Structures are given as C-alpha cells and as structure tokens.
C-alpha cells in the first residue's frame, strides 16, 4: 500500500529547498519529483537534491521557468536537462525520455510524454518511482515493496540493463551497501558475474567515485563479499588484503570514512607490490585524497592507546590531527578488532590537545651568537629534539635557555 499523499507532502515540507517547488509546479504543473529524492523521502532518510522530470521539451521547460523568475542553466539540453535556481537553491529538471540507442555507457535519447516509458529506462526499481505535487506516488515496477524489503532489483532484465550501461554494476553494489538487507537479488548477481569485465571500459574517475560511495555504506562488508563472489572486486581492486582485515575495522565501530577503509584493503607495504599510495594514483583521486592515502601509508608516527599526553603531543607535531585520528582506528583494528575504551579516550585527548609548535627560529640562534649556515640548522635540530623529548612543553624562553647552556664553553 502506498503512503497517504498527505503524509508524503508533510515529509516533503521538511526538505531544504521545498519552498521553491511551488514555483516550479506553477511553471510545470505536470512535473514530478523523481529518483533519489523520492526513494529517500519514502524511507525517511535525509534528502539532498530535489530532482524532477517533466513532459515538456527542455527548451519549453526553460521558457516556462524563466517566466516565473527562475534563473535557468542549460546544464544538459542534449539529454533534456536544465537546472532552475530559485532562492539560491538548484533543481535539476529533465524531460521524459526513452532510449533510442546506447553504446554501453551513453544513450541517444528521444523525448516522450509517457511516464512509464521514462521509468522503464531507470536502473533500479527503487529509483524508478515519481511523486506529483498532490503527493501521489507512481510506482510502475514494485519499487516501494523492494525498498521496504531492502531489495535492490534492476528494472526489467538485468543483463539488458547492464549492457546498456556498465556503470550499473557498480551502482548495484552502491545501493546494496546503503539499502540492502538479506540475500541479494539472484538475477542481478548472475548478470554482474557474467558481464563484470564491461566495467573495465568505465572511466577511472567514475569508478573511484562509486567505490568511495560503496566504502561509506552501512552494509559494506557484505557488499564487498558480494563483489568478491561475483568477481567484480578483482576487476576493480586487484591485489587487496583479505576482507577479514576490513571486518576487524568495522567491528571497532569506525567512522564511515571511505579512504581509511581503503587503507585497510591496501596497508603500508602493500599487497603483491601494490601499495596504498599507488592505489590513490591509479584511481586518480584528488590531490587531497592522494595526500591522505600517502600519509596513512607511512609507518610513522607510531600510535598506542597507552600514550601519555607528552607522547601524543610528539606524534601530533609529526602528523596532521585528522590523519592521526584515522590512523588510530587502523591500529585499533589491527591490534584488537573490537571497540575499546582506551582507544576512545586516546582520540578524545588527541582532539583536545593544542597543536604543538616548535617555538624557536633562526633569529633566536642569531641572538645567541650562532652565525647563519649549516651549524645553525644542526643546532635547531638539536633544540627541537630536546623539545620533543620534553613532550613539546618547553616555551621559547626555556628552549633558549637550554640552547644557551649547550652553546656555552665547557
């Protein structure tokens, strides 16, 4: 049974950007909300983007939206998509479509006014529902029942849908990691097993985007096991560590940070010659993402739940706090593989500590009579080493006094 329209409209009223929908429906009265926003609205999850579909051709939709004062950006006219900006909030609006042909990733489309024909070209039943301005749900393929059952199922024949777009293999795993419960759909798994090599044609950037979303999913371990069973994991992430290592991390109730989960699959030193830093390059991650993986791949500094505040300050001086926090979960997983109050306390202390900053600079040594040159650098290193041994506690005055004592004739 579909939810009552008034219940869906009440839930929709709490979504950011809801206010602009009235103006869109004024311009496009037959438009409906589609895709992820309908799915997440139905299962009570946070809705991020309000996407709509409309039977109006994109040029006409643009004209109608501009007449009600919306700023319209032609973000993908060849695919029937415009973006309306109302009160600084974007709404993506796409003309109803049917596929004319496809090359295994991109489709040539034609416009239609048939809502079921448009829904037929969507990937999964849980993404093929639509919601009109009266709160009426249109569900042509049993998506609501699948959503309630935690079942991710292709619209139509799974093999045909994957042959149309190989990215749908990855999207299956991504949605299973987020919404799946119980046994996965057998037809989908058989089709992916048969067609998994089509994923090698996908761009590395798009593969990385989907993988990171999979790695942040709540059903991650079962999803990766499923990817391993279908042969997909060997195609996408060869030479990975045993999934049991990741299971130890998840058993610690780690934060859902995809890069440090990736770090468990590719620990320092690598697996079969492929290390974490190399994986970041292979996946063409952002510079920030590559830097994070490179930092996690370093064996130092060493962390232990027994470190006192002096020891914590020393490691905090050596590495960024956010990296140390992520590293703490990796060490906990390796050592214990379960929740632990000692590690939780260490993270709390680490977050509370002020960032240590070595208080001396070259001018301090010049004031003590040290001339610029190699000797100055060596004296600074000695002073810093002493300061670290003291737990990064001495201030500038104490450091100068220690250094003066070292420089004075004996």
Automatic annotation (TrEMBL):
Residues 187-241 form the tRNA nucleotidyltransferase/poly(A) polymerase RNA and SrmB- binding domain. Residues 31-153 form the Poly A polymerase head domain. InterPro entries: Bact_CCA-adding_enz_type3_sf, NT_sf, PolA_pol_head_dom, PolyA_RNA-bd. Gene3D superfamilies: Beta Polymerase, domain 2, cca-adding enzyme, domain 2. Its cofactor is Mg(2+). Keywords: Magnesium, Metal-binding, Nucleotide-binding, Nucleotidyltransferase, RNA-binding, Transferase, tRNA processing. It holds the Pfam family PolyA_pol. Belongs to the tRNA nucleotidyltransferase/poly(A) polymerase family. This is CCA tRNA nucleotidyltransferase. It comes from Bombella dulcis.
